[in-house]
Amino acid sequence: MLHATYPSLAGQRVIITGGGTGIGVAIVEAFARQGAHVTFLDIAEEASRALEARLADLPQRPVFRYCDLTDLAGLAATFAEIEATFGAADILINNAANDDRHQIENVTPAYWDERIAVNLRHQYFCAQAVAPAMRAKKRGVILNLGSISWHLAQANLSIYMTAKAGIEGLTRGLARDLGVDGIRVNCIIPGAVRTPRQERLWHTPQAEAVILQGQCLQLRVEPEDVAALALFLASDNAAKCAGREYYVDAGWYGA
Ligand SMILES: NC(=O)c1ccc[n+]([C@@H]2O[C@H](COP(=O)([O-])OP(=O)(O)OC[C@H]3O[C@@H](n4cnc5c(N)ncnc54)[C@H](O)[C@@H]3O)[C@@H](O)[C@H]2O)c1
């Protein structure tokens, strides 16, 4: 996929969470190819190292940092180290998540907390970590990845959907509190994106048909489509976009 070039992204310092697999890979590559300096965080060490190696020849090669985002002390230490090493972030993309399914009767308080920690909590604390330097510069962009799932009321995903609904509220709250200092916070809502993980989970003709029947467009959404929206929203071309949700879902309203 050929992305538009956004001159305002060249040289920007970008932190992308969950960049090692799935949609994150496309976002890492898309920003790196704009000439942005990308640091990506993940627990998927092997895949992340492979991505680093694949993009090592780019003029601005992306850098991987291992970080379990559910460990808030580790998260804070990682962000401090990145800022000390590379300078303050201009753009944060809160992308990491985990959409494991669950049955209501099996959910324990500990499992609830773990699901919220992996799908919601870190978005707040990553934003908190980059906010002081962005405030000082009077500019910055934070993009939070939400999900179409709760808009469609999907099955066996209630805690993930609670977290993803919360991310839209979080986006508006942060956009209000940080917007006065020129920081733009928005939410990207992907539809059914054809990632390796989703292909492993749902790659049957029946599942494919359900997705296409539910969408306005008879095209599958690819990770690069999500990256294209992230590039636009992070660029100065989106200078007046704040506190909103932007869908990239081929018009998925459900069957
Ligand atoms: N793929 C889809 O169809 C789809 C649909 C709607 C929303 N989304 C959202 O888009 C974003 C990316 O989704 P994806 O499909 O690429 O997911 P994915 O599961 O393929 O990749 C998520 C990445 O986050 C990382 N991660 C998970 N837990 C982590 C932790 N504790 N610390 C650090 N990294 C961690 C994983 O290792 C992985 O590399 C997510 O926020 C997801 O909720 C995806």
Automatic annotation (TrEMBL):
Transmembrane domains' residue ranges: none
Keyword flag Ligase: no
CDD domains: SDR_c (cd05233)
Pfam entry (one): adh_short_C2
Superkingdom field: Bacteria
A molecular function (GO) term: oxidoreductase activity
Keywords: Oxidoreductase
UniProt family annotation: Belongs to the short-chain dehydrogenases/reductases (SDR) family.
The protein's name: NAD(P)-dependent dehydrogenase, short-chain alcohol dehydrogenase family
Organism: Janthinobacterium psychrotolerans
Lineage of the organism: Bacteria, Pseudomonadati, Pseudomonadota, Betaproteobacteria, Burkholderiales
